[in-house]
Design brief:
homodimer, mainly alpha, Tetracycline Repressor, domain 2, 10 helices, 76% helix, DNA-binding
DNA sequence: GTCTATATCCAGATAGAC
DNA sequence: GTCTATCTGGATATAGAC
């Protein structure tokens, strides 16, 4: 019956989601090879077999997470550029918003760590590698564009936009990592010092 | 005979060194779990058995590398503080020197990545975890001291020394990671923009 | 000191009962 | 949809030949 299969559908979705969330945490910290199916099963209070009922393999879970990680990141980049804000405000907004998300949702940090893990590892599945190669550059390019616009308007300091974008993401990733690991004990510092990296003196308080 | 055993000793040392160097590269990128003994053997052109002749287990290689990583880092910290340089010069010197080392010796980046890997992973051997816990804070504390001294002298911008030290190491680690991964293709940006993070206006060009 | 062969164990994945 | 039992491959580590 339709009603029954609707419910099943919802259960299925909820299970898949639980597996993905649990696996994200483990993959982000321990990597693909360092995470066992039994870890994921334990972490989500399922049996080994049930995990395989929802995903054909460990690597498929990994690939799906990488896909989602970039989906979210690229969505955020598009959203940022669509805002009707002066470029230097966009930059500050991105910084604050990202770090705020890190604080409130651990998941957000974990996606960043997952990408870092995957980028470093040599033995990730080909599907994941492809997604990585194809998207890796998008956040850098987005931020470089914003920075270049700000430089034209004289609100962002001169310098190669690519370089400043590089420092932007290095900092964001470092903060994500710190927050994911010590978030509960040590608060991440206030970001105000970082503003000096990007803004011209007339925009600084 | 003494001469013969001397030679053996030297061979032994050279072999151990080769294993450690090869393993560092693999552990730093793929983690402990993601690195197989056979990978290390292949990477150093030895047989599996020979690796076990020099180290009792994979984990022992890992622990020894973690030990060395901190040894080097802490040595560098001590050296930095011993320099007869004004504090803000020490900070710039540390930054330039670290990044210069990253460029000239890939090994240096790999040690930083190894520490990052080990910090993130949950399943590292207890011995490695201990070293990590005991030393993790030393580089931060060193840099915070230098920064505090610079603030007293008015050459380094105000702000919590711990926070600035945090940003310092976040950037260094990010650069190390970038250099280790894309070092051959993409040059790491010039560090001048980062100076603004730390120096008061009168010290800036 | 170095290699090959092998024992042992554990993790990924499947089958089939409920 | 969920679990337990099981197959299978591969990785750690050891033994023993050279």
């Amino acid at each position: 019956m339709a009603r029954n299969s609707d419910q099943n559908q919802r259960v299925r979705e909820e299970r898949r989601e639980r597996i993905l969330t649990g696996a994200l945490e483990l993959f982000a910290r321990n990597g693909l090879a360092g995470t066992k199916i039994s870890d994921i099963a334990k972490h989500t209070a399922m049996s080994n077999g049930l995990v395989y009922h929802y995903f054909p393999s460990k690597e498929d879970i990994f690939i799906e997470l990488i896909r989602t990680a970039f989906e979210r990141l690229i969505l955020a980049c598009g959203y940022l550029e669509s805002l009707t804000l002066p470029p230097h405000r966009k930059l500050l907004h991105a910084m604050d918003e990202l770090v705020h998300t890190f604080r409130t949702s651990p998941t957000a940090c974990l996606y960043h760590m997952l990408i870092a893990q995957a980028t470093a590892a040599e033995n990730i599945p080909a599907g994941a590698r492809d997604i990585l190669e194809q998207n890796r550059n998008i956040p850098y390019a987005t931020m470089a564009r914003v920075i270049a616009q700000g430089q034209e308007q004289g609100t962002i300091r001169p310098g190669k936009p690519d370089d400043l974008a590089f420092f932007f993401w290095v900092n964001i990733n470092g903060i994500a990592q710190h927050q994911a690991m010590y978030g509960e004990t040590a608060q991440c510092p206030d970001l105000a010092p970082l503003h000096r990296l990007y803004l011209t003196s007339k925009e600084l308080p």
